[in-house]
Amino acid sequence: MLSVSALGFVSCSQDRMPYLGGEEPIVFKSPEEILNQGFWDNDPSLKGPLRIVIDLTHQKVIYYKGNVEIGLSPTSTGMEGHRTPRGNFSIVRKDAAHRSGSYGELVDKDGNVVDPAFVMGSKPIPSGLRYRGAPMFSGMQIYKGIWMHEGEVTGYPVSHGCIRLPEKMAKIFFEHTPVGTPVTIR
Question: pTM to 2 decimals?
Fold first, then answer.
């Protein structure tokens, strides 16, 4: 009778498994950790133009050099009533410290938030308060008020039309994306 070990099978501990003759650790991540991950591999030997594809159905941003995918990020795009427009665009402006001119909060002279969900133009700003736009850091303008920027990523459409990225991926994309880079939103 053959033993299990004689057949080449070995028992695996909880965090390790056989892999091509060796053992590789299995790292279990929560859905939140997986959601906030991105991928970037800008191999300097690759040649070709940069381009970005924003997939609204799957809520992901794909970054290409030539025809090779070098970056991938989860995203949250425009919710019902504020849908992210589809079409072919390009990066028209970049601003590392951009803030929204439409959505933000009202603060008093000491910086205390008085109205956390203020929409510019919806009503007058009361005396003694000032508007502070929502942060859209590592921002890249794509079309009118539509920006790709750092923000809360839920994996489904929740923004006012912008393309939100996890902080890490927003900074990487911002650093590597020149103005004029083509962007397809589909």
Answer: 0.79
